[in-house]
Amino acid sequence: MTERRAYAVHEAGHAVVAQALGRTVCAVWIAVECARGGAEIHTEGIALADGAAICWAGQEATDLLNVESPSRLAKGDWERFIGLTSRMDAKEQERLRQDARARARELLRENIKLLKALADALERDGAIDHVTFRRIVDNCAHP
Ligand SMILES: [Zn+2]
Question: Which domains does the chain show, CATH number per domain?
Fold first, then answer.
């Protein structure tokens, strides 16, 4: 299993859960050479539970597809989650984390075809813009 695959599945996971929650996915990209990747998602006014589910979706995606994930991939998501929940106590934070992970996993399972198609495209091309993302979503919905 290559590191490139892990990055592709991880970032595809964020995008798929964002899409499933009705958010606009602007772009998704990976840059394995500099250990970076990202999913640009329109998150204005997003509910905390949705934001947390998107946050954990990268890690859930690699778990779901049994892709070994370098630990640094999840590090940024941990930091983001801590930022989102900085006003909560540890117990509340942990409850939200468990709920968010379960929700992300459920949405990924429901959209596993899209997850795989998107991960394949990212692994191949390295970046997906909004128009290409929409086309992949449509192809998966109406094959
Ligand atoms: Zn991530």
Answer: 3-141 (1.20.58.760)
Please name the residue that has the structure tokens 């998966």: 140
pLDDT band at 142 (very low <50, low <70, confident <90, very high): confident
- Cβ neighbours of residue 127 closer than 8 Å, sequence gap 6 or more: 27, 28, 29, 30
Residue 73 in contact with residue 14, Cβ under 8 Å?
no
Strand (E) or helix (H) holding 27 = strand 25-31
Between the CA of 133 and the centroid of ligand 1 the distance, in Å, is 18
- CA–centroid distance, residue 98 to ligand 1 (Å): 16
Phi-psi region of 66 (alpha: psi -120 to 50; beta: other; left: phi over 0): left
Q: Which residues pair with 40 in a beta bridge?
A: 27
